[in-house]
């Protein structure tokens, strides 16, 4: 069902066929290497538009979100990843390139197209891999929720990066990886024009909700976050984001 009340978008819906075909294969391959445990899947509505907002601690988070989400998800992915064979695979599997350093209206329009057609959009509000404690929080998820009224389901990743390891480090073979879907959060759809104050308020409420769900996920699994990345162990793109963050979230100036 296409929702006539949602904003229109001139962008095409990202490809879906390969995403649907690859998910069972990726799950099987990952489970051969890791003890993946998924909890709270019922919090994601079985139909209709939805947003998955996840913390970001390691390189596995994106692939695991795409593979283990109860529904196929089109995730915003840094545009630096869309090069070579890996980039072609990401595009064909329906992931959405995102420029993290400048306004990216095309990415927003693509997300709106997915949501308008009852799809699921994935987003990492922290903007890059790190401690996963939501101390950085960009406003994109709250903005999309405000524009569309779609529910936001928090996702907590635990175990996708060893404590003290670099951002690209993978957990040892056989390690346990937890993916916890939290209770959904929703804000009333706000028609245009949407004021900056409305976005900030919605983002602060979403951040508070996600922090609570992160704490619950840690308590449920009996696990802790891996802590911050070691000094000098971020990639060059992440360093650039740290040095010149756009004013798109609760960054540097502190969070509420």
In terms of topology, how is this protein built?
Layout: H1 17-33, E1 35-39, E2 50-54, H2 61-68, E3 73-78, H3 84-92, E4 96-98, H4 105-116, E5 120-123, E6 137-138, H5 140-148, E7 152-158, E8 176-181, H6 196-221, H7 236-243, E9 249-250
Parallel strand pairs: 1-8, 2-5, 2-7, 3-4, 3-5
Antiparallel strand pairs: 6-9, 7-8
Q: What does this 3D model show about the protein?
A:
By secondary structure, this protein is α/β, with parallel strands linked by helices. It has a single domain (17-250), classed as Glycerol-3-phosphate (1)-acyltransferase (3-Layer(aba) Sandwich), CATH 3.40.1130. The protein is built from 7 helices and 9 strands, in the order H-E-E-H-E-H-E-H-E-E-H-E-E-H-H-E. It has helices spanning 17-33, 61-68, 84-92, 105-116, 140-148, 196-221, 236-243; strands at residues 35-39, 50-54, 73-78, 96-98, 120-123, 137-138, 152-158, 176-181, 249-250. The protein has a 7-stranded mixed β-sheet, sandwiched between helices. Strands 6-9 form a two-stranded antiparallel ribbon. Strand 3, helix 3 and strand 4 form a beta-alpha-beta unit. Helix 1 (17-33) packs across helix 2 (61-68) and helix 5 (140-148) packs across helix 6. The longest helix is centred in the last third of the chain and has 26 residues, at 196-221. The N and C termini lie far apart (38 Å). Mean pLDDT is 88; it is low at 252-256.
């Amino acid at each position: 069902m296409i929702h006539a009340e949602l904003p229109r978008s001139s962008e095409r819906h990202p490809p879906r066929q390969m995403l649907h075909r690859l998910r069972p294969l990726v799950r099987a391959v990952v489970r051969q290497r890791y003890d993946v445990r998924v909890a709270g899947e019922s919090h994601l509505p079985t139909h209709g538009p939805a947003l998955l907002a996840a913390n970001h601690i390691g390189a596995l988070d994106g692939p695991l979100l795409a593979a283990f989400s109860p529904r196929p998800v089109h995730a915003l992915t840094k545009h630096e990843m869309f090069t070579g064979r890996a980039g072609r695979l990401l595009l064909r599997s329906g992931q959405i390139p995102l420029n993290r350093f400048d306004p990216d209206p095309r990415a927003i329009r693509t997300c709106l197209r997915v949501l308008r057609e009852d799809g699921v959009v994935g987003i990492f509000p922290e903007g890059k891999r790190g401690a996963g404690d939501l101390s950085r929080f960009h406003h994109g998820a709250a903005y999309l929720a405000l524009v569309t009224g779609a529910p936001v389901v928090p996702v907590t990743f635990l175990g996708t990066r060893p404590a003290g390891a670099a951002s690209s480090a993978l957990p040892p073979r056989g390690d346990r990886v937890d993916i916890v879907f939290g209770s959904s959060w929703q804000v009333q759809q706000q028609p245009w024009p949407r004021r900056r104050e409305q976005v900030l308020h919605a983002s602060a409420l979403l951040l508070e909700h996600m922090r609570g769900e992160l704490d619950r996920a840690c308590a449920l699994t009996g696990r802790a976050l891996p802590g911050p990345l070691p000094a000098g162990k971020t990639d060059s793109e992440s360093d650039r984001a740290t040095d010149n963050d756009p004013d798109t979230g609760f960054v540097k100036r502190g969070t509420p």
